[in-house]
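Spend some time on this chain, tokens included, and walk me through the fold:

. . .
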Amino acid sequence: MIRFGAHVVLVLRYLLAEEIKDTFREKLMTVGDRILHMYSLFLFSKHHEELVGIYASQLASHRCIDLFVHMMELRLNSSVHVKYKIFLSAMEYLPFSQGDDSKGSFEEIIERLLSRSRETKAGKFDETSDVVEQHRLQSLQKALVVQWLCFTPPSTITDVKDISAKLLMRALIHREFALISMWRVPAMPIGAHELLSFLAEPLKQLSETPDTFEDYVSENLKEFQDWCGCFLFVFCLTILMPLRFIILMLITGERNPWLISRVEHISESMEPLFLELHATAMLRLPSGESMCPDATVCAALMSALYSSATEEVVSERQLTVNVAISSKDSYSIEVILRCLAVEGDGIGPHILNDGGLLSAVMAAGFKGELARFQAGVTLEISRLDAWFSSKDGSLEGPATYIVQGLCRRCCIPEVILRCMQVSVSLMESGNPFESHDQLIELVSSSETGFINLFSQQQLQEFLLFEREYSICKMELQEEPSS
């Protein structure tokens, strides 16, 4: 019966659209949408996802988007076959980009999904709860949403190559995963691992036809390849130690300089412009356990973040810091940093590519090096956004260079220090790493600018590793003569 009703609605809308009076048309749209919505859910419940698009495409824009978001979230952990049926149904019967306000588009559905996946999930923890594990699982759910962007569009749709490129470009916005992969936990970062596996096929297609996507994804692809090398190295250090030589060669290889700084042109506005960095994070103790924040901890952290910059900088850049406990997760905090944009940091080209002042302040927390806070406590970031904003606080557009710079500050020194640790271990075992000197040159090179990304504490650790390496090397050289 409901199927018959849905078909009657479609017939009335298509055949009698011009003859129906306005009052009756409004009722037909309202009641008809309810019938089509019910039948779409019925098909979905019977696992006929491939048919849903026929009826959902006739719904009002907001109802169509809500329906597909609901279905995609319910099937998030389903098999690839089931998820691909929903993907095809949306691709074949909906426009890809928003053109007609009365029609829902695939882009709007994906943007809603991605936005919801990045929201802080409500969490209730007790003393026996593994808070860290729960946050790891949340990162996995976030990665599963990205999988919708990694499917291959059907060849029958219009502009399939352009659409494939746009999907891949959106999938490569992975910066939070770069920081998540640096979480200091022994367990593998499953969210980052899943994301790499999802992107394997579209990146393979990209390598086969590189010219097709160059205009769309070149910048994001370079950044993804940088992060991919970073994550693979960390993964191999903890799981696949025999591959250390390959990964180290990727990092120090002369043919493919890793994460070279690029000059990026930012806003040219001469009006007072501000920068904002919004982050959701969890406080991690040196023992690896999570710290449950309270008002006192938030106040202390806010003061410590302020103190990571000099009083002169705080005054001149009008730096403000706000730290509060998340309303949804008692173990998460919301950090908002704001400062005045200046030449080289928000205005004009950003030559250093280190994210500027806000990146430096947040990196100090991420590295656990806040002078006036509990020693060794780190900020494990799970969500990160940066914006240009006006004087009244309204957000005007994304400040991507800040997020990229923060990832460089946090990830590159950490990976290099682990490289040094492996190099020392190899020397101690009597199997010296041949490219150790190249690693030193990589850090000191003015072309890479890596040394500017190290904090004073990290530089000290780097020098200690080099000292230990040199001592082991001298001991090995003395052994034959003794």
